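Lab notebook, page 48
Experiment: co-folding of the full assembly
Goal: obtain a model of how the components sit together before planning crosslinking
Operator: M.T.
Materials (sequences as entered):
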Amino acid sequence: MSLRKVANVVGLLQVFIALSLVLTGLVALAYGDGDATAFFQSAGITFLVGGGVYMLTRFEGDVTVREGFAIVTMAWTATAVFGGLPYLFSGVLDDPVAAVFEAMSGFTTTGATVFADIESLPHGVLLWRSLTHWIGGMGIIVLVIAVLPYLGVGGMQLFRAEVPGPTPERLRPRIAQTAELLWLVYFGLTALLALLYLLGGMGPFDAINHSFSTMATGGFSTRNTSMAQMSPFIQWVTIVFMYLAGVNYALHFRAATGRLAYLKDAEWRFFTMILLVAAAVVTVLNLASGSGSGVESSIRDGLFQVMAITTTTGYVSADYAQWVPGARMLLFALFFVGGMAGSTSGGIKALRVLLLLKQTGNELRKHLHPRAVFVTRIGTKPVREEVATKVVAFVILYLLLCLAGAMALAMTGIDPLTAIGGSIASVGNVGPAFAELGPTNNYGWISSPGLAVLTFLMLVGRLEIYTVLLLFHPELWKGRRSFH
Amino acid sequence: MHRRMRGTAAMRVVVVGAGEVGYHLAQRLSEEHQDVVVIEAGPEQAEHAAQQLDVQTVVGNGASVSALEQASVREASMLLAVTSHDEVNLIACLAAKRLGVPYTVARISNPDYYETDAVLSQEHMGIDLMVNPERECARETVQLLQNPAFTEVAEFADGRVQLVGLKVREGAPVAGKSIRDLRAQFSGGYHYVTAAIVRDGKTQIPKADSTIEAGDRIYLLVPTSEIDTVPPLAGYDAFDLKRVMIAGGSTEGQYIAELLEEMHVECTLLDRDRRRCVELAEHLTRSLVLHGDATDLELLEMEGVSGSDGFIAATGNDETNLLSSLIAKEAGAVKVLSLVHKFEYLKLIPAVGVDAAISPRMSTVNAILRRIRRGRVMTVASLSGIEAEVIEFVVGGDSRIVGQALKDVDFPKEAVIGTILRDEEIILPRGEDVLRPGDDVIVFAMPEAIHHVEALFG
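Observation: model returned without errors.
Model output:
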């Protein structure tokens, strides 16, 4: 493990963050809300620190697997710290922990906010929140790999450590080309969405912010009521694009090159089926209870909330805390599922859930045929046993992490039910949760220790647990040779 | 014994490889009086073939041009590349085609080489026929399995017509009836040709007034599409193949399972190598794969061998296969088949009570002989139970039999025209039918009639 290499790559990444801070500063300057200086100050500090570290630690050679894990975790942590600076410098927040929380919530596309009155925030701050979503959605590292292919073989380690899902697909022989294509699809969809928002009557500023937030499955809005006051057209467009953001980008890329592979993908079928069934059940329950305000709006609300939670976007179009218990419980279950592997969403991921169900089915069949050899399949593709085992371990770790997080939150004095919701929503990068962290509430009232716990949970959730937890494993730091 | 087809000039056939497949091919072709040259890399096998068979042998690599030239391949009308190495067979065929051999056959096991849309397709490589030994064996096994009534099955005309042998049971609808009655009675159902009736060990070619009795073994030529209608007429219950157990995850076993899966038969496959089990489970989407020994009685019983319609012992070891078959038969599996690799063991099969044995190598030899055309003779099949032979002829423009109604042809009494295949049509011959050039004709003939029949078609 070479800390020099870790520091070097992390430093370089901060130069990019400084660059995006400058861009935001320029927009803030144009709006003249007085927060531009805060961004330039933040950019300056970030650039000096990041650039300095980078210059001092230049190295020859490649990044190893262990360094890869350390780099990704450190990079995300540093990014959240520097990304939180403008919140402090502009004076919208006083507590450094809250600032880092807000930035981490942005970069991890969680969308949990400490701000109660969002509409009073200056334009620069609003744009920065959305931009952190957008950058974090496809992945900071993936962005850098796309721009700077110098990481070479080590790039694959970083890519693997950052991209959601058990085994990221390579679309092109070189990892840098793959990263570039992913960003291209991401950028294209975001531009298309912004255009549709404009057509739907949104102002240009709101359109850009919301398109960043939607495509990243983030959840930050520029409005206090999130999406609740938006027109039905905008809500429908958002439903469609939240869905698209929750689908594996490799499938979008194939479609863009003329090969529609959606239907052939077993995970896609499973993911889509979950969404449709859940939305139908929620809609029927709401209509039956008479709480809906009409068939179209009930269908729209049902689809919107199911989509917002399953893809871990966390937008709110209706106060689901007021729904009938059945519908609320169903949403609670969806907090765990998440989008597809290779999407910008969080959660366990549909692929892992599907694999787990199939694996469980096979375990049941094993009781009938103790000597049978079963192969778990996704579609027609057999899944290797090690991969299947890892997935089972991941899901168990995920649930344990949610539990541990809830425990830690409760220790800071938060009511257990709220703690459970907050923990799950943070690990899954969803945002809004239940009880006192419900769709109409915010995270502003939580104490600094509580926010620190939530920040950690968001990071661990975004990097899919292993990457971060490995840093706490003593063997990573020992000199023992790794054979990977 | 096969004999020279009169009216068809001897051909030069080059056989590459004198392993079991090559050896037996050379033997059968040589007995048909074809001029056979065997190319074999191993001096001992070459020597063995030279001593035992009436063939010329060349020691060398069959894929090398010099060895092919030594075998005078330019004068050959056919090359059969049947070594156990796919690539050698492919190259031998490629080279032979370049050297002007009109017809080449390759034994190819690896399914990758069968991709028809590949750049290196069969046509591009100049191979006229590719035979996959494991698949041939699997096909034969499944055919035998499909119907417990059949003791023998042979395919003709690319599988469109089958010759089946089966024993008529007491009380069968056909028992005690004459052929004429049967034709009248089952105008819709009994429209296949009764090729032979075997009674008390004596084979007879039936006439219109011959009767079928219970206990007879009858041979019928049946269009493949109607094969299911045969067993009920002979007194067998309609047989529904629902559950099959395959002991042994050999390549043959895997292919058998694949074929059965296509037929929606519930399939259980077991192998004692865990890695192989995983491989099988990855390939076979619907079969149940078990890790265990083919002779593990407890496991077989637990997984329901007694309720299986079929059991196939398909390990690579003959002794294991026979033992496994015995266990399955004892446990109550309806039809038990076994793969038997060593030819000497084939004789033991009736004694141990296994329903049928399939020799993977023999089924390859048969598959090749059945499909390669030797002059006007397309196929010859000899049946194990009786002396008669089934020969598939193609009618030539100068054949003596052309242009006359069959009833006017001087056709020998000891032979019968089973089926006429004209383009896509399968015709059951009547007295009024007239043969045309290009027709495929399947003839069932007793040995003494064969010369006469050949003369008619020559």
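Interpretation: The beta strands of chain A are 377-378, 381-382.
Next step: discuss with group before ordering constructs.
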